[in-house]
DNA sequence: TTTATTAATGTTGTTTTTACATTTATGTTA
DNA sequence: TAACATAAATGTAAAAACAACATTAATAAA
């Protein structure tokens, strides 16, 4: 029977951030090389401890900022990991958070001032503690999210081609999609603006650039919907 | 910059359980009347504190058992709540868990030996702290689950009629479903055994009883699927 | 001017979903 | 014992969504 509050069983509460990014090479996660013991020098998710006067969401934001300088990144809570010896130093429960960001907007900053580095999700180093598991679960969540929310806004440059959007979805779902069917499904969502402008990098013909229509996009974000790709 | 482990910011970690049940009256949640301060006498989710040598899943199981005598209930972790003053006594982060159980199998035991009580989800008392929010989020999760996993096994009596199954889904989704379409979708899942036996309670004609085909059911549980109701 | 490259575009058959009404079995009542 | 009342069981057709698929168009480079 639970009787009263005791301070006997307080624990350390950590936050670990799974940051997804996307560029021409594919889907990536942001990792850092730990600069303290234990496991110093090993690759790890960006993480830190919750402070007494902080909610988890803020801790996640603060920690991400501390390690990467990134600001105003919306993160979403995922799961609390609590295996007894997941951290060998001290009993620590860790709550994972994940976010999507646009690599090109942030890359210079990250690489220059911090020791954070992007790794392709299929070619990342082995991570400390239970961080590999955290990443795998975050990928699952990301896949699920593609089917109920429009994503891409955060991961692509402001102006992008249909091919880039297609490749983003293919990278997330790790399967090939039919180009024509993909395009017509995306168009049916009615969240893109087709620009006059063309991107001439990728072909002689050039391909139209698109931007997200922020208002319509936000509207869709409210009401879940099904996007079967 | 995060430097080393400090014990300065340890917190209490709680677990709160949202237990769903179903009977002829509809979908219900299990609540208890708090028998300690603060908020003594008010209704609350079943909850308690994580112990140092315990993982969250075990804590959830232990706490549920302590308050209700219930054993072997599979629970699933949902979300960590961390508002600073969510618990007025002391900074406490709470991780919510949810489970589905069959009311009829457990009711007697619960009501007799403990102070737990079932409330219809649409007619439950106001709860302490942020427990109302926890319940609302759990309902959302439950709805989501209906679309990717077969549920019902846990909530219905061993033998049940199609009508009962229909009413369960209607209660969870809180919308009416077309009976014929529902039945054919359920049948297409191929997880039920139709018995010879009929239930004569509900009508003069009587309606066939079904059981879940445990093997096929388990099989479906593994692989997510889409059930659009 | 020809060539090479990638972009843009639409149709058809198949499957899934939705909407919807009649007949059947059986206990109750007149 | 016949008529009645009640809920169960059942099927179809139209609409929508999905999947598979190949040709033409625009442009830079040779």
From TrEMBL, chains A, B:
Alphabetized PROSITE patterns for the sequence: NUDIX
Residue ranges of coiled coil: none
Domain Nudix hydrolase stretches: 10-143
InterPro entries: NUDIX_hydrolase-like_dom_sf (IPR015797), NUDIX_hydrolase_dom (IPR000086), WH-like_DNA-bd_sf (IPR036388), WH_DNA-bd_sf (IPR036390), WHD_NrtR (IPR054105)
Transmembrane segments: none
Name the record gives this protein: ADP-ribose pyrophosphatase YjhB, NUDIX family
UniProt organism field: Flavobacterium phragmitis
């Amino acid at each position: 029977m639970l009787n009263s509050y005791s301070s006997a069983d307080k624990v350390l509460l950590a936050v670990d951030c799974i940051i997804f990014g996307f560029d021409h090479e594919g889907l990536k996660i942001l990792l850092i090389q730990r600069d303290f013991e234990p496991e110093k020098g090993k690759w790890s998710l960006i993480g830190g401890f919750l402070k007494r006067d902080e909610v988890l969401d803020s801790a996640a934001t603060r920690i991400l900022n501390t390690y990467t300088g990134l600001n105003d990144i919306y993160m979403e809570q995922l799961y609390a990991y609590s295996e007894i010896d997941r951290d060998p130093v001290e009993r620590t429960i860790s709550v994972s958070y994940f976010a999507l960001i646009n690599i090109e907007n942030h890359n210079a900053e990250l690489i220059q001032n911090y020791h954070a580095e992007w790794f392709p999700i299929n070619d990342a180093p082995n991570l400390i503690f239970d961080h590999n598991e955290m990443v795998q679960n975050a990928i699952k969540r990301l896949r699920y999210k593609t089917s109920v929310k429009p994503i891409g806004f955060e991961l692509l440059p402001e102006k992008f081609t249909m091919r880039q959007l297609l490749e983003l979805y293919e990278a997330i779902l790790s399967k090939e999609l039919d180009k024509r069917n993909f395009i017509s499904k995306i168009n049916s969502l009615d969240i893109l603006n087709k620009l006059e402008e063309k991107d001439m990098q990728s072909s002689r013909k050039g391909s139209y650039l698109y931007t997200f229509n922020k208002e319509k996009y936000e509207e869709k974000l409210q009401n879940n919907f099904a996007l079967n790709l």
